[in-house]
Amino acid sequence: MAQAETAYTNGRQSQVQELGSKDVSLVARSTKIATRQGEVAVETLRAGDEVVSRDLGLIRVRWVGVLQAIELPIRVPAGALGRNVPARDCLLAPNSRIWMRGTEFETAFAAREVMVPVKDLVGWHGITEHVSHAPTTDYFLVLCDTPQILTMDGMQVEMRHAGADMPEFATVDADEMAFLFPELLALNPKSDKWRRRLDKHEAAHVVEVRKRA
């Protein structure tokens, strides 16, 4: 992965990244995540806080990481995926995967639940690349003990271990880094196997299927 220039996040030196084709789900700064206490900005989340998981209900956060990248986020406008889904405009890294469910997917994918890369939905229901004058975007990764689908701005978004790319993240809580990082590397980086994770061509078919539904 190319590294462009030195930048500062929360007063700490870090490297600006190019996300490229790396398969990692990230949300932009100010995205609201559902927690036990209600919705909070993702950058205020800390290890030990409880967030709302689609599969497990309330679950504790193990770690929150941030990186700065040159890629523009994808904007999913409020209501693009259904009533109040998302609840407000949501900015995601291009390779972030959104959870979607529908009986109409069964014929095409032999599954009702699918994980769709947001970049492959651009052009549908107002989903577009977000134009910004800022040279970089702060992207956040929220990790629990296992990969989870978390509620971001009222939308279901995959959050899973970044695998070999973990060292590129700065921790939101710097004092915890030395203690947690060895454990983080040991966490399972793989997403659940029973949900169909779609590629670009399959994602295009999702749009067609939804148009006909």
Q: Nearest-angstrom radius of gyration?
A: 17 Å
- The total beta strand count reads 18
Kindly estimate the percentage of residues that lie in beta strands according to DSSP. Answer: 35-45%
Helix content: 10-25%
Shape: globular
Explain this structure.
The chain has 213 residues and is mainly beta. 13% of the residues lie in helices and 36% in strands. It is built from 3 helices and 18 strands. It has helices at 105-109, 177-186, 200-212, and strands spanning 3-9, 12-17, 27-28, 32-35, 38-41, 50-53, 57-60, 63-69, 74-76, 90-92, 97-101, 113-117, 128-129, 137-143, 148-152, 155-159, 170-171, 196-197. The strands form 6 sheets. Strands 1, 2, 3, 8, 14 and 17 form a 6-stranded mixed sheet that branches. A 3-stranded antiparallel sheet has the order 10-9-13, with no helix packed on it. A 3-stranded mixed sheet has the order 11-12-18, covered by helices on one side. The chain is globular and about 45 Å long. 35% of the residues are buried.
Keywords:
mainly beta; six-stranded mixed beta sheet; disordered N terminus
Structure described in brief:
By secondary structure, the protein is mainly β. It has helices at residues 105-109, 177-186, 200-212; strands at 3-9, 12-17, 27-28, 32-35, 38-41, 50-53, 57-60, 63-69, 74-76, 90-92, 97-101, 113-117, 128-129, 137-143, 148-152, 155-159, 170-171, 196-197.
